[in-house]
Structure formats: C-alpha cells, structure tokens
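sorry for the late reply, my laptop died twice this morning and i had to redo everyting from scratch. anyway the thing you sent over, i finally got around to it. pasting the sequence first so we're on the same page, its 380 residues, then the predicted structure underneath. double check i copied it right bc i was rushing
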Amino acid sequence: MDKPETKNDVVINITERIAVLARHKKFIGGITAGTAIVSLVICLLLPPIFRAETKILPPQQGSSNIAAQLLNQVGGLATLATGGIGMKSPNDMYIGFLRSRTVRDKIIDRFGLMKIYDVKFREDARKELGEALSATSGKDTMIVVTVEDRDPKRAADMANAFVEEMVAVSKGLAITEAAQRRLFFEEQLQDVKQALSRAEEGIRGYQEKTGALKIDDQARVVIQGIGSLRARIAAKEVQYKVAQTYATSQNPDLQKIEEELKGLKVELNKLEQKGGNGHDPLMPTGRMPSVGMEYLRKLRDVKYNEILYELLAKQYEMAKLDEARDAVTIQVIDKAVIPEKKVKPKRAIIVALSTFTGLLFSIFTAFRIERGKTVFPSSS
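ok and here's the structure:
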C-alpha cells in the first residue's frame, strides 16, 4: 500500500514546483511577454468598429374608429376591425421586414456596400450586412435597431436608412393588402348591383304584364323578413371568409361569427316553415293565386339584393377608408446619431486574456520539459 502523503512531502512538492518555475523563468517570461506584444500589435491593426442605435415604435394593432363604426352597423365585424382576431404582435413582422432581402438590397445599393465590403457577390454583401445589423424587441413594445460599421457616420446613416426602407416596404405591402380587400368588395358589390337591377327590371316587367297587384300586408312582411335574413346570411358568410384569412379555427371571434351564422340560418328556417306543406316555403300561405306567388318571389329577390347591397356597400366603404388612410405610422423615438466611442475591438480585454493564456501555456510547457528530463535523463 502507498504511504499517505505527509505535510513535509507537500512542502517538498511545492518547493520543487517553484524551483521548476525558477529554472524556466526566462522561458516563461519570454513566452508571456511575446504573447502580450503580439496580441497588442494585432489589436492595433484591427480596425475600430462603431455601433449606431435607433429606437422606433411600430404601429399597434387596431383600425380606425370610423371603420369600426361602419362595421358596427353591419354587426359583428367591429371586433375584426379593432384587432380582435388573434394576430401576433406587429414587432416580429417589422423585425422581419428589417432583415428581409429586399431591405438589405436597398441598403447595399444605397451605400455601395459591395465596394466597401470588397466582395464580388451580392449574397456575400447581404451576409456581412446581416451580421452588422441587430434588431430586437423589448417589453416596452419598442424596436431597437443597431448597425455596426468601421465608419461612425456611415453606421448612423445606415441605421436610419434601415428604418426608412422598412417603412417604405411595409407601407407598400399595407396599401396592396387594403387595395386587394377593396377590389374584392368592389367585385362583390358590382355583382349584387347587377343582380338588383335584374330583379327590379323583372318585377317591373311582371307588373306591366299582369297589372298592379295588391299583396296582403302580412305576406309582404314575411317576404321582406326572409329577404333580409338571406342578405344578412350572405354578408355574414363573406365576413366569415375574410376572418378565416387572419384567424385560426380556435379563435373565439371566428367561432362567434360561426355561431351567429348558424343562428341566422335557424331563424330563416323557422320563418320559411310558416308556409304550408306542398307549397313554396318562401310563401307565407298556400292559398295565394299563382300570379301573387310569382310576384312575391320577385319581390323577395328585390328585397334580398337591396339589403345585401347595403351591407356590402358598408364593407366596401370601410375598405376604401383603410386604403386611403396611412396604414403604417412608425414613430422614431431615438434617431441614430454618430457614435463617439468604438465598441470593438476591446483591446484591454484581448491583451489581458492573451497574456494570461500565454502564461498558462509557458508554465505547462516548462513542466513538460522538466518531466521529459526526468524520464529521459541526459548522458551527462
């Protein structure tokens, strides 16, 4: 068994190690000093890097009050207009705009970065620019955009330019989306307008052909109610399709629209059941002459298209307002200014770490040399 190490043995071991360091002090000092000098020279050769920072506040979710008021008249769409469809925070979207290839290409062309970065391919310039750019979102809903560059003025100009190009891109996309919605409702409105004209011409021609008809007031009320319900169902279905493009099936607002649609259909079914068996369910009575029934059918078509046209017209006006107003209002809280101090390289830290590493390496090497002498003693 090995004997336990005594206190004297520990003292001897420490003394031996100190002696090894003393014998190799020139080697250790030379390596350490050489490492420090080399790291210092490298730090002096490295170009200084400056960081410019700008803070922006992107627009928050929600639509204009005018649009919400118009949608309140339709019923149920006001929730969508005020951002209640479960969309994510817009900050992530705007950070994506900042990092997009389109914005980076505009910055590259604007500042001639391919020449500054000394690269042949645009992809390499995009990569370097992406490494120089940083965009983060804080809890205060502001986005911090920083750009690093060797030229402090260019760093500040590029940081501000990123915000300008992001606004241009996001504004163009917002206008395009609003225009698409306006065109969609405009097409629907034109179709309903033509259908309404045909229905009005049809009932006018039928009256001229058969003579003036006096319809029972109760029958007229029922027919108008059916037409109104069908128009509301059609408008609600349009609303449901629009909501599906923004929200998932688990979204409470989408589920609410679906429940309202089901309720309207149930109400319509009850109203239609007022007709007797064997008769047109849209007719309130089975004893009406065929001429009167045909007239009521045409009256129903007119009322249906009138109400549907009115509902779609309100949605169309809302889309026009969204297209006309400035949808993207990004506020610059802190504009980037020319930085006075460099952020890289941190010469003191680099030299200190390099010197410490050189010291450890030289000490380790000294002990390896001493161990080699013990294992392979010289012939002398």
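The chain is about 70% helix and 5% strand.
thats about all i looked at so far, will dig more tmrw
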